Structure to design on (180 residues):
């Protein structure tokens, strides 16, 4: 009977460790950010609309009715959000989650990582093409981010290519930024 009791205690201890250790490892392995986000840069020409709000919603659109004889004018809209954080080691992956995506083929979502003080960029990735519903955008930054600690910025939003004539738009709700 005593052997069975010891065996049950050992099994319970192993099961408890198996349940607790992965949860601790996951929580200590990275940083997670949700809205409110900081509002970043935005712009475009007089034919465009751009807006980013701290709740995570980014919207851009442009209606340009004039055909170009040789090429198109500049002025496609962009709008961005960002989070800053103190990094103590290199960032290997940034995952930005979104919902309520309705983005056309000439508007694309961007995610970038950069050093705030030195204005050095460690990578940018874009999701191009039609975006609908929910999903994630993953950035695997360049190496050489040291020395640490330093303040890094994850910047994310929408940008639209400039075309003529065009009528393009996109809106997306960014919900979470995970850095590991």
């Amino acid at each position: 009977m005593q052997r069975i009791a010891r065996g049950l205690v050992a099994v319970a201890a192993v099961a408890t460790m198996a349940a607790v250790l992965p949860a601790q490892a996951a929580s200590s392995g990275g940083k997670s950010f949700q809205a409110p986000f900081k509002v970043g840069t935005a712009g475009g020409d007089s034919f465009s609309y751009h807006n980013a709000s701290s709740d995570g919603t980014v919207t851009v659109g442009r209606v340009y009715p004039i055909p170009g004889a040789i090429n198109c004018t500049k002025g496609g809209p962009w709008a961005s959000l960002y989070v800053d954080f103190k990094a103590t080691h290199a960032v290997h992956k940034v995952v930005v989650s979104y919902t309520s995506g309705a983005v056309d083929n000439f508007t694309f979502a961007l995610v970038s990582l950069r050093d705030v003080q030195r204005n050095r960029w460690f990578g940018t990735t874009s999701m191009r093409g039609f975006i609908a519903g929910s999903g994630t955008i993953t950035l695997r930054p360049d190496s050489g981010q040291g020395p640490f600690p330093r303040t890094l910025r994850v910047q994310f939003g929408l940008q639209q290519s400039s075309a003529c004539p065009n009528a393009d738009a996109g809106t997306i709700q960014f919900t979470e930024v995970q850095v590991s």
Notes: The chain is about 15% helix and 50% strand. Residues 1-28 have pLDDT under 50 and may be disordered.
